[in-house]
Structures are given as C-alpha cells and as structure tokens.
Amino acid sequence: MKILFLNLPYKFEISRASRWPEKTKSGTQYYPYWLCYAAGVCMDRGYEVELVDCIAKKMTTEQTVQLVKDSAPDYVMGELTTSTVMHDYEVLTEIKQANPDVKILVGGTHATVLSDQVLKECPAIDVVARQEYDFTLDEIMKNWNDLSVVRGITYRGAEGEIVHQ
C-alpha cells in the first residue's frame, strides 16, 4: 500500500503549517512538518511512503497531477489551509479526475474545523482526518472497508451522508 504525502502546490511560496501561511520576514520557508510526522509514522508502520513538497519544488498543478499519475499511490494525503483552500480544492479535483481510483485524504486546521464544509465543497476528498492525524492515518489504512471504527475522521457514508467518528 502506497501513500503519497503532498504539500499541495500554490501560486507563491508559503509555509502551510505556520500560524500565518507565508514565508517569514527573513525569507524562511518551513517544511510541512505535520505531513512529515505522519509520513514517518506511516513508514514505521510498514507503508510505502513518498513525501513531496510541491511548494518548495515550485510545482504547478499540472506537474502535481502528473506526479500522482507517475507515482501511482493508493492514497494521497494533503493539508488544507483557509487561505489556500479554494486552490487546494482545484488541485485535488484535478488529481481525482486524472486518477479516479486514488483515495484522497486531507488534514490541517481548516479541514479539522470545517470538515463538513470541506466534504461538501470538494467531492474529490474522501476522508478528513481531524486534529493531529499522524496516527489516525494508520487506522484509516487498516480499516478502509469499515471507517466507522476509526475515530477522529469525517467521511462520506454509503448513502453519501457525512459521517463524524
């Protein structure tokens, strides 16, 4: 099972996990540390993991979609921030259109606080992993066929209803 962790591309350099998602006054751009924590946990659990910082690599949406095609992951994990969420939705939608079988998971502050809204606004997203999601991802992978046993997530149920666990 392969998980591709993406610091989703954006039109300028930002540090998503910072209090305000932009570079510091000194020009420092922080790495996506929550994605890195989660990738490390998943590596420790035996999953095949790839982590790509699309912002640091100055990747476009098109390059990101091609990366997902070439990588052929089972899951894509990204973070959403309020200031970038509309662009993030566009990127995730293009990824899903080009790779319909890939499962898309998101986390981050915006997704945690507004999980219902996120799923309503972006049908490409399959699961929202709320709050600190590093250990939750392992539970999602192990229980994909019965997400009702995983706590700390929001997802679409069998009838399309939004379910909170």
Secondary structure: elements and pairs:
Elements: E1 2-7, H1 33-44, E2 48-53, H2 61-71, E3 75-79, H3 85-98, E4 103-107, H4 109-113, H5 115-121, E5 127-129, H6 136-142, E6 153-156, E7 162-164
Parallel strand pairs: 1-2, 1-3, 3-4, 4-5
Antiparallel strand pairs: 5-6, 6-7
Helix pairs in contact: 2-3
Portion in helices: 25-40%
Topology pattern, helix = H, strand = E: EHEHEHEHHEHEE
Cα shape: globular
Evaluate the radius of gyration: 15 Å
Count of helical stretches: 6
Low-confidence stretches: none
User: Could you give the distance between the termini?
Assistant: 24 Å
The chain-level mean pLDDT equals 90
Strand content: 15-25%
Tell me the major beta sheet: 7 strands, mixed
How would you classify the helix and strand content by structural class?
alpha/beta
The counted number of beta strands is 7
Strand sequence of the main sheet, in spatial order? 2-1-3-4-5-6-7
Describe the protein in words.
- The protein has 165 residues and is of the alpha/beta class.
- Helix 2 packs across helix 3 (85-98).
- A seven-stranded mixed sheet has the order 2-1-3-4-5-6-7, with helices on both faces.
- The longest helix is centred in the middle third of the chain and has 14 residues, at 85-98.
- It has helices at residues 33-44, 61-71, 85-98, 109-113, 115-121, 136-142; strands spanning 2-7, 48-53, 75-79, 103-107, 127-129, 153-156, 162-164.
- Helices cover 34% and strands 19% of the residues.
- The model has no long low-confidence stretch (mean pLDDT 90).
